[in-house]
Amino acid sequence: MIVNIQNIEKYYDKHVLKDLSFQLDNKKSLAIIGASGSGKSTLLRLMSGMEQPDSGSIQVNGINVLDEEYKKKIGFVFQTHNLFPHISLERNISLILEKTREFSLEEATSIARKNLSLLHLEDQFYKLPKNVSGGQAQRASIARALSINPDILFLDEPTSSLDPILTFEVLEAIKELRGIGKDFVLVTHEMSFVRDFADYIIFMDEGRIIEHGNLEILENPQSEVFKDFMRKVR
């Protein structure tokens, strides 16, 4: 994955991202960390093309993230599972494939079952989201994101609404995806997972990238704000 971020500014009711510039070359899994409100999820959404910056530009793998072709190459997993409540886990995936990718029902069902099985949900195909655990529902949402065969999977704090046991279940499932040839960009507060999964780290504070580097920066933070963050999350 190659990332080129140039002079990004983003405002909502306040100045959220402040003149961010960043380059990444040839990494598979990027973790964005920092305290709540530091701008992590906003940066993730901009990198995925879900939102537009107020100024600046972002290219991933040489493509502007606002290009429609880029958006076809990414999958996104939200903080909560965001599944349609009235249809089965299988149909949550096959319906999307039929409507957005023009697969036949037979093809879409086959892809849905393949990806649900990849996330260890082969015995849950026909259940409604309300009839599975929160961890299973979140794994189904990951399966749905994978079903479009994205080049990059974006995960925005995918365990934030789960208890510790379900968090472990989901994170273990994500770890198993490392071998399927995708790139990953994730926001998470789970530092043990970052150490196991990521190969590059961005640390953010108050809308700025304070430090970035390989995993070693977690053990040797340079700035006081990063040192303080690491003391609190250890």
Average pLDDT, to the nearest integer?
94
Side by side, the strands of the main sheet go 6-7-8-3-9-10
- The helix count comes to 8
**N-end to C-end Cα span:** 29 Å
Number of strands: 10
Q: What is the radius of gyration? A: 18 Å
Can you give the helix content as a percent range? 25-40%
General shape: globular
H/E topology pattern: EEEHEEHEHHHEHEHEEH
Unreliably modeled segments: none
Q: How is this structure best described in words?
A:
The protein has 234 residues and is an alpha/beta fold. Helices cover 35% and strands 25% of the residues. It contains eight helices and ten strands. Helix 3 (89-101) crosses helix 4 (105-118), helix 3 runs parallel beside helix 5 and helix 5 (134-146) packs parallel to helix 6 (164-175). The chain is globular. The model has no long low-confidence stretch (mean pLDDT 94).
Topology:
Blueprint: E1 3-11, E2 15-24, E3 29-34, H1 40-48, E4 55-60, E5 63-64, H2 68-71, E6 74-77, H3 89-101, H4 105-118, H5 134-146, E7 152-156, H6 164-175, E8 183-187, H7 191-197, E9 200-205, E10 208-213, H8 224-233
